[in-house]
Structure formats: structure tokens, C-alpha cells
Amino acid sequence: MVIAIIGVLIALLLPAVQQAREAARRMQCTNNLKQMGLGIHNWHDTYGKIPPLMSHVDHQSFWIYMMPQMEQNNAYEMLSGSNANGGNNLNYPSLDNWDRLTDTEKAALASIPYMHCPSKRSGTQMIDDSSNPARGPLSDYAAVFLYRDLYDTASEDGWWNHYFGSNADHLAAQKGALTLARVNESLPGDVRFTQAKPQLSFASITDGLSNTAIIGEKHLRGNEVGKCCGGDGTDGSYMFDAGNWREFLLSRNIRQRFGRGPNDTTPDDMYATAPNTQVGFGSYHPGVVEFLLCDGSVTSLSQNTPELIRRQYGHRSDGTVIANQ
Length: 325
Description:
Blueprint: H1 2-47, H2 62-66, H3 73-80, H4 94-99, H5 103-109, E1 126-127, E2 136-137, E3 141-145, H6 168-172, E4 182-183, E5 196-197, E6 213-217, E7 251-253, E8 259-260, E9 282-283, E10 288-293, E11 298-302, H7 307-314
């Protein structure tokens, strides 16, 4: 009888314990995003601009730019030290930087706590297969990207065209708060460059900092965590974009339907009728997806948020008022 009563009590308490644990994990995820917000604001205070999404194809991402502002000076120094060619390593493709690191240094970069949502994973997370172009440390967060204006119904096929900082069309196709740096030439191979300039400041966010999302939780199917970039695997390095067709490593298209947990396969279908259109945001938190807004606050959007509202949050200057969900 006593054993039966204990069993009933455990059955009653277990859901409450699980809910409490998930609440704690979600709070940590929120704190991760807030820390990123502080990093962006510190960077803006220092340079008068929003950090660029990336400086050029295969080069460093905004995550690397922000490391000194997010108490990750050691990680930044690992990536930006001098090299045999004479100059700063950040002037060279990021794969070169990753491959020259020791195993200990790689593990340190792959263990930065704010890059991982604890509802999805924790600890050391990386791909270190020397044949994988997306190798490097992994993250559960991505920049908010929007390729079309608010009421443009054209296909999203082609939204990955945002990786050449010397291409005017690529620069013009970016409607969100994080955009490419502008560079003064098309850069071949490993040629060193120094002129990569951020385009936007907070003044460019005319819809208001509290109405514009800048970073969100990216959707990953449960069986694709840690896998990229064959089949539908979209979980690669946050250090750089790894070339055309892999821009989803750094950013996700907020126009796409939000993922609804690890078993939701639809948003991650890279090879749908329009390639790469389905790589979007999503979370493992029940019912919501967390987003960092440009003012540094965090908002929770329903996994069922309508497309118009998703676009409004993603567009920095659409001039509309976000409707109540």
C-alpha cells in the first residue's frame, strides 16, 4: 500500500519537476540572448555601428566581431592572432583560423555557454571533420534575415544571396538589422583585406529598436543536431557562412514558419521545391520561440505566429505597427 502511494506521488510530482527544469532552461536561453544584446550595444557604443552579419564569403561572422564585447577576449585572441603571411588572421578565411587551432583551443571555442540553448544541448559542441566545409563550433542562435519587403509574395528561393559584400544586389536584398559589411572588391582566394565596413547603425532601424528582432533561436530537427551539410543537416559553424548555399549557418529567414520542436521536419527541408526556403527559426521550448530585439530585450513569439507578424519583426523599416498576436 505504501509503495503504491509513493508511486502515485511520484507520478503526480514528475510533470511539475519537468516543467520546473524546462522553465529554468528557458530562463537560461533568455539570458543568453540578453547577453548577446549587451554585446551588440557595446559594439555599437564603441564603433557607432551595428556589427556586420559577416565581412565576406568564408570570412568572420558577427559572433566573432562581438567576442571582445561579450567577455570572450581569449576566444577572440585565438582567432585574431598574427599569422605567417603577416597580418591579422581575421583578414583570412575562417577555416584557416579553425584548422590551425589546437584541440584544446577548439574545445574552448565550442564550449562558450551563451551559444547553446540548454533545452537543446550544452557542453562542447562542434564539427571537426577536416573534409566538412562547415566545421567549427556550433550554436543554437542565428541572425534574423528577411529577403523580401513586407507584402512581397514572390518566392523566397534565392534568399541565400547575401554573402558578397562587394555585390550591390546582395547588399540591397537585406531588410533586417544585421547586414553584410560593405567591401571594396571581390576577394579571391586567401587574399588579405582590411576594408570591410558595417552598413547600419541603430538610427537605421526606423521601425524602432523594440519592434525589430535581430537574433533568434534556430530550428534544428532532433536527428540533425551536430550534422551539416549533407541531406537536410543545417547545423554548422557559427564562425562563418562556409560559402553559397550555407548562409543558414549564420542567419535564418524569419518569413518561414517557425519550427515546433525536434520532431517537426517541415521548416528544415532544404530540398523542398524551392531550395533552402524552409530553413527557419524554432525552438525546443513548448509553444514559443525566443527572439532578441534590437533594444536588448527578449520576446517570446508563439510557434503559430502569422507570417505578416514574422515579417514585421524581421524588417527594420517597413513603417507598420506590429499587430497583436
